[in-house]
Records
---
Amino acid sequence: MQKYICIVCNHIYDPALGDPDSGIAPGTPFDQLPDDWSCPDCGVTKEDFELYAG
Amino acid sequence: MQPESKIVIIGSGMAGSGLALELASRQIPVTLITAETAGYYSRPLLSHAFSDHTTRDRMMLKSWKDMETSGVSVMTGTRVVSINREKKSVLWESNSSSGELSYSHLVLATGSDALIPGPWKAQKAHFSILNSFYDLENLLPKVAEAQNSIAIVGGGLIGCEVASDLNKAGKKVTLFHGVDRLMERQLSESQSAELLTHFQNLGIDVRLNTMVQGFEPGKVLLPEGNSFSADLILVAVGFLPRTELAKQAGLETGRGIKVSGFLKTSDDSIFAIGDSAEINGQIYAFVLPIRSQVKWLTDYLSGKTADPWVPGVYPAKAKIHGLQLKW
């Protein structure tokens, strides 16, 4: 599954890990994150994430 | 494009660099002038670079070369000395040269300095601040050397985040705050109480209602002639928008550079965004509204919108290890 990176703080969303602190289970693809999900490090919304090639 | 249709941005923080990259992605010519030399870094990460040594590298978002590759002309290590509004140009200088650059639109994204109360300015040698990548580079070795005690003056958002991060890094932290609860600007009374208990459980020594009187080498001066000894003293009591350039150019300023709903200063060709911009008496100095201003101004300058920027409701959270704090 594709990882995504925050353009404001370089936080990487890894679907394999999810975001348990925000109630996102491991295995959740980026495009299935709820619209009100925000970057755990800096708080920006999904639209400030881009595909991570690394 | 003709030289007269050129956008010039001053400042390379989240507002300035963010705007430059958005404009460049729409093939709009843009020049970014910055006094910074390191690169475009993520300022919000400054307050948690002590416990995790990868943060320092991770916070570098784009090198200047990356910015140029994205289509932004960058002038680094360069300060704008003055704005000539008649000629629509800025005078700049760097260590090696100086010159004049004309603009069609100028965007002031000059950010903010750490606030240092007047009486403490003469004592600056006795404490540190954390406002830039440069400050962080200075602080990291000092934190590593601070074996016994670190004093943080200021229990606002940054003071609390840094206290949490230094505690996580295994440091003994004492936090001084002048009023009766932590982060009183952001949190409800019950959240402040929750944070206080959390800090106390972590072993952070929190001294509320303690007005710091000043500093001596290795000492925080307290009321009634008392003092507190520390290996390192960090002052985090607020921020001060950088308005000098605007003021000097005769633009209207208050606490920040005054702008309209169109983020325009009192000069139609000059905008201000980010920490330095004041809209209806409000300064929106955090990530979400700044991203929103960046996107709006990109749309406005590229003719995609004629409506003003409307501030929204911005949920925020503090990064305190082991505690979820939202407001």
---
Amino acid sequence: MELLTYLALMGLKSIAVLGFLLFAASYLVLGERKLLARFQVRYGPNRAGPWGLLQPIADMIKLLAKEDIVPQGADRKLFLLAPALVATTALLSFGAVPWGPELVLGGRKIEGAVADVQVGLLYIFAMSSLSVYGIALGGWASNSKYSLLGAVRGAAQMISYEISLGLSLAPIVMLSGSFSLREIVEAQEKVPFGLIQPVSLFLFLTSALAEIKRIPFDLPEAENELVAGYHTEYSGMRFGLFFLGEYVNIIVLGGVVANMFLGGWKGPLLPPLLWFVIKVLAVAFFLIWVRATLPRLRYDQLMHLGWKLLLPLSVLNVILTGAVLAAWPKS
Amino acid sequence: MEALFFYLFGGLALISSFFVIFLRKPVHNAVALIFTFFCLAGLYLILGAEFVAMIQVLVYAGAIMVLFLFVIMLLNLEEEEAIEGRGNKFRRWLGGFAAVVVFLLLAPVWLMQALPVVKGTFPPEKVQELGNTVWIARLLFTDYLLPFEVASVLLLAAIVGAVFFAMKRM
């Protein structure tokens, strides 16, 4: 009985989170198109439904109805597998992101996350490091020059920025003394870590942008050199899965930034869940803003930034934080 | 419950390691190896070693295998080149010999009916108290500080060596 209720609860939570993620990702696409249009003094999509609100549904129908093409000479199995990898790793990593406080319902504690993992942060990193394979294998299996170039660029970029991504969050872990995102949020009761560690926030946001390949770092899919990079050969819903992965990753990133730097679900007046969603959307808005503002980096600039600027800075940040913590130990 | 997951992950690890050996294309072998690492991480989780499990995925599956794949993709190894080595008699004998040695080393384990229960210094209850991560960190930076530092110097030497070779090429 205990096990059954547990499983039922897990299932319900998973379905709710999955539904939210899919819904949020598809409307984030619309939101991004609308905002980008506004940044460029255009209207953006406004034909399907009032204010273009039905656009995501129209897009979905189009993607599902399109022919699923596997190019000749492609490695069929890996070609079919790759987009699923991108989407699943992105969806899975949200599992460890807590979105609300513990709820007591009928004497049973319900945690506000699909799974409150002790090593939650490492789990999210692990999932994001696995998402490289979707890109690398997809590009390689397409058997096309553009795709392969995109895949190689993507793999190199993601390995390079993973290090500064991990190190940029190390000070936060040192401050809170835990890998669990819930405990990190609890540690921000008084001051959010974004105010104590602005350098860490900057380093994390920059590396994360590179990790999810958003605009200043979108070389793996640079459309004016590589057609569409690693997903050039994909069509229909398989292309849709790459797309879905990208936008789910934005939401995951928003969730991680909200939990690590902005105090998670905590805030005055409004209910916790709403605070969490507001913070995630704020991060997503920031990412769209960056996309509308910055030009794409050149490849050597990208490597230069990652290895010679972000990495030393994040190491320095870790050392400084360690020194401060050693000099003034927490009471 | 534990046994169920043990056989699931263990079985999948075995099957995928067979694929590592028997598939023809190098890229497929690499993918099978990644999956094997993933299953090993699952086994670590059953043992209650979350930290080790995550590091296994992060480092082995997520970083080292990317480099492997990178090399395979860049060299664009195809089936023929990979199979070329098959004709080599000496290699075959060597491989067979190694397999027999490993089997002989493992044989005593199979002959044992049940492993003698020895309680170590870190039973699960004690690990649960503080969590896997905290214990590893404590031991690594107190009792095992010297091996830890030696390992890091070794890695540093490897990095310096790699840079040296790369500089020579340029």
---
Amino acid sequence: MDKILVIITGMAIVTFIPRMVPLVAISKLDLPEYIKQWLRYIPAAILASLLVLSFMEYSEGSFNFEIEMLMASIPTLFVAIRTKSLVKSVLTGIIFMALITILT
Amino acid sequence: MTMTLKDKKSEIVKGAKRASPIILGYVFVGMAFGIVSRSSGISVLDTSLMSLLVYAGASQFVAVGLIEKGIGVLSIIFTTFLVNSRHLLMSASLSPYFKRLKSWKSAMLAFGVTDETFVLNSTELSKKENKNFYFILGLHGAAYTSWVLSTVAGALLGNYIVNPNELGLNFALPAMFIALLIIQITNRIDLIVCLVAASISVILLPFISDELILILSTIFAASLGVVLKNG
């Protein structure tokens, strides 16, 4: 087998296992309440962390910000708070981002 | 509970429609991956195969970079494992909703767990617990299909297509994260958990990889949430 096919097959296996094991195994367990609470806080924490990673990076000794994305976040945040609608927020974000990219 | 074929179909369609923000984002990232992979000297077929079988964006970009540098097979596979081990937390967090599902169905849906489908699903599932297998299947299927097709498009067309940056699509996923965050925060502890996770992420940014930041900040902030809730 070609080297790259070995790599892809290996990657597929080690990627699938951490996705599959908790969903198949943990879902069968009766978890104590505090573990369930802990699992429920994970999405909010991951979201906040993903946002930081989307807007910031660190290289060569300094923090760099995605200024255009930060600008587009303001109308997106406004629409998200007002409508609580995913689609409206994302469309607002994309339109403003396109405008900012074209205009700057 | 028995479902007719029509019910199943309508749930799949509902899930697929709900995936639309993810699809917009994946079109952008998937095409970028196709282009980057081709320029690293990987064939169209292998590039497409990687998206088809691995389906994990960040790790695919990393792997392509390592392949180009001529790094060994085992190192690349191990790095992939490290980058994707964060999915353990996500699948664990979703697992209570999968209690009544047959193992093979859970395994099938598990293949579709990504950062984006996870945050979307967990918002959907916490609203209404009885979202069923077919809804998630539609959501995961649509996101996965868009990832694979846009990889193929990027790999084939490469530089002929318009720069998706100019369409604002690079902001589709961050915009979705913002909206989901707003929907998820329903009380003071939620807000504290978010602020703490964000602060830790900023503090750790100069020192460790993005994937490790996600894992450590999440473990810490979620634990703090439990302490605050019971304290």
